[in-house]
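pasting for the record
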Amino acid sequence: MNPAHTLGQLRQSVFSAERLQARSVKDEMRENLMGKLQRNETIFPGIVGYDDSVAPQIVNAILSRHNFILLGLRGQAKSRILRALTSLLDPQMPYVAGCEIHDNPYAPICRRCRELIAQHGEDTPIAYLSPGERYVEKLATPDVTIADLIGDIDPIKAARGGHELASELTVHYGLLPRANRGIFAVNELPDLAGKIQVGLFNIMQEGDVQIKGYPIRLPLDVALVFSANPEDYTARGKIITPLKDRIGSEIRTHYPATVEEGIAITQQEAWTARDHRRLNIPRFVRETIEQIAFCARDDKRIDKRSGVSQRLPISCLENVISNAERRALRHHEENITPRMGDLYAAMPAITGKLELEYEGELKGADHVVRDLIRAAIAKIFDRYFEGQDMSRIVQWFDLGGEVSIPDSAPATEVWQRLSDIQGLQEKLGALGVKHKDGPEAQVSAAEFILEGLHAHQRIGRNEERVFTAGEKGPKRVGPESPREEIPAYKRRSFN
């Protein structure tokens, strides 16, 4: 059905006067959300790990017609959730064509539209907004002014039109009026100066704004949503108490609860589609990358108040793939298969995402990240090999064996070296690698095993990535003894 293009045609369409006048934005979101719930549809596609925690709280807030705020550390999908709210808006929303604040054709609130309808009547032109066009987002910064949010009197507009400054026709509307009949989102709300936050009071409680002291009332129809970092309450700024009181629901976000959830998010967000080559990312590599973030969130040398963003494993995976891609291009390998050595090459994707405490600053970011990688490898290694006898591999090194695995060496060359290690090949099956698999997969799995033994101090490794016997030598030969859990940062580093 073709949409109506005039006010007269609109009255005969599905957008009746009764429907548009009686239905606010929050009613519209509530109605569409109820339909999704009844049809058992996914409310927020692409948001992983919030189905039983954050999502139900957001649903309750929308069903309650609340303005709400998402509180969470960086990298917890707050902005993505706010932008996903547009899926709860109608596919089309009619308004008076040319109106800056998207006036309702049946109940215009700005003087221009009232005069236009009075002049043209049923022939008043109508335009339509898509859901994306009804979403307005502002990143809060200390230099934001009331004029930016609410609006100001424009003397140039007054001079060109011959209007008095007190006339509504001289108003230059801010972002909030331009979000009329839509969603207005403010990211990092505490960064707004307190006197600017006060400017939001009227729109949240009475549903109107006033501009520049002139008696211009705009009864806006807006759904207000916010995001903030909890620590910003006492760091860069603070949400003033009266404004917090007017926010209907305060919803806390969180990081992935499990490595599997983290893997799903990273797999969804990371750029892994590389050109014309087959990419094989072993499961244990994905798990280790994700475990780095989990270890970082528990490490005392890293600032908990700042958090460890989910962007860390995303960027790390992309860098790991790129290092493996560089190696494959150099040696004309068809398969791109990341190894554990690629994790250390991806350290630049990790160090910039960690805020270190005093102890961490003393050690240095590189040292902390190497410890995190080793701790993550040890954790994932235990998933696959907890209780398994690795004595034959350890004995090979204790009897004087050593092997070099440069991250830039081709897989065929490295596998020739690794195949000499007694007991190593038979352990690859636990990682899902078979004898028929190519050397790239075999090298990746074998190196993971060696790195796991190194992380548990069973064998040694130097900076040139040469694996040798551990410090304790022959005393470690034989069945494994129970291992005492040692924090990663206390373990001796061979790097």
